[in-house]
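To fix ideas, we give here one paired sequence and structure record:
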Amino acid sequence: MDSNSSASKPTANRNAKETSSTDANSTSKTSSSSSPTSPSPTITNKHHCCVCVKDLPVDAASFARMTCCGKAIHNHCKDTFFESSLSQEPNDKCPRCQVELFATDEELFGLARGWADKGKAWAQFLVGNKYRSGDGVKQSYEKAIEYYTLALHQGDPNAIYELADMYYEGQGVTKSIETAIELYTRAANQGQATAQFKVGVMCYIGDGVDKSHDIGREWWIKAAVQDHAGALHWLQKLDKAEGRTTPTITCCSTCGTPKTPLRPLHPCKLCHTVQYCGRECQLNDWKEGEHRKACKKIRKAAADGKIKTVPKKKKQIDKSPGKTTRATTTKASSTSTTTTSTSPPLPPQHDKEPTATKSNTKDSNDGLKKKKNTTTTTTSSSPATATATAFPSPPPLHKQADTCCMCLEDLPVDSDAFIRMTCCGKATHTHCTRNFFRSSLSREQKSKCPHCQVKLLSTDEEHFELACGWADKGKVWAQYQLGCDYKLGVGVQQCYEKAIEYFKKAIQQGDPNAMFQLALMYHQGQGIAKSFGKALELYTRATHQGHATAQCNVGVMYISAQGVDQSNELAREWWIKAAVQDHDLALQHLQNLDKDEGRTTPTILCCSTCGKPKTPLRPLKPCKLCHTVQYCGRECQLNDWKEGEHRKECKKLRGK
């Protein structure tokens, strides 16, 4: 560990999507020049703590990383785990993969180096830290910069912060305050609390930027609501220096933790002059502190009319029809904000979705002529250049952030290839799940989730209820799953309108599976007017993110001339992209196309035994005697030699 800084199968992926391929016959990197004067909304880390399953913060100082399995754990969860009443043996093992923890820095460095070679950004950042500090390896600033840069190219905010720190200190690189500010700001805009604190300090003292207490305060507020002690301390000093009687951020009167959107403070119900983060702090201040006496004095003075207490305001709900929409909007925006009500207003960042929706409504009312023009425009564009008009633009690239909780390998983009557990939100490859239930484990062990060990749910209704809870927290996979449930009527009454609503919510977060499902509804006219043009737009957006079934369907549209000009070449290109991801239907379409065109050499070479296509990660090796057949591995070669007919054919080909 490194602390830098009936038992049914889990049917949570019961999306049971219509395998989603329509039959051929029937159917960059973010700019790095951010200014410290314009803080952007913070981006939360997409990974979860392997103990409490809650989201991890962005700042690596707040959690520890296990180099054995690559999972992470909150610092407080780690302390609770090792201080628990577990025996010494469990305490010596990783809480996630149960591998014995490594004791030396050299062992940790070796494991981190292995993960870094696989392209893991967190490991590249970790190896950079090792080289910079000389833990487990000879100190080398050049190597540290090299690994930080590799992680920076993947957008890792912690590597960006560390590299900024090296530019600021002049370690292994020419000292440059301008470059440091630029990198600090990039990390701060991704929610890195220490970077936000650092930018605030530089703005406050005028180090490389124009001196501004107000801008410094803004950055410190963003760091303080993430429990950054240094930022909270400087905010309190700034309030004292400016003579403020009301603090910028209200803190718990007992433990001093700041008020945050996820941790509201509750006032004393008697005097309303102090606030607490929870009942425990309130009881401690009442029993062991001095608030019991102070509260009596305040209430006595209030009764005599000397002072006025501030009663707790009751929430007023406006039931007038004209206010309903406004109240709903306010609730939605307050859920996504990252600053407290005491924070100075930041420059608003408007979403382009209303404009797109307006354009879509106008298009739908312009008649048949307008629809034909829209279809013609989409047809003339290649899949690589097609753009969406009715939906907000997603990020340029969506990378599946999750890993399989069994084999720890990255999950593919296409949700057909893995199963999601609604109990903890984790996922497993389809083949890993199959191996799990075919294993020699007991029936009781198989009745529990392989990750969180919670008993697997048996009904679709229970899965639906859990998915609703995750969707309310903004989890894109849950929004997509609810869309599939409403579309197919699994665990809930079928409703295409609700399905479209949840798919659109997931599309706003750039989910390619939701794009594919909505495209399929447009393609087949399910609950919505049939439109090849809009189907192609959404299919194409999903294909650019590596969705194999969407790639297969785009090929089907080109081969069948559905909304586009007929083109065997473009269909072949899309099917090749899907086939190298082991998409069986795309491979079948390619073989049929080769047969129709009379090709003697197949477009994609396949294993002569199992039929798996050749891919960059799975090369095929020819028979060393005749070189006429190819295999994906030794097992397939032996099966074809012993049980197949290649032994006889090989002799004939060699003239024996």
